[in-house]
Amino acid sequence: MSHLLVISAGMGTPSSSRMLGDRLAEATVKAMTAGGTPTPEVKVLELRDLAVDLATYYSSHVPTKTLQAAFDLVGTASGVIAVSPVLNAGVNGLFKLFFDLLDEGVLKGRPVLMAATGGTARHSLAIDQTMLPMFFYLKAAVAPTGVFAATDDWGTSESGLMRRVQRAGTEFAELIAKNPAADYADEFANVPDFASLLGG
Question: DSSP assignment, residue 138?
Answer without folding.
Answer: T
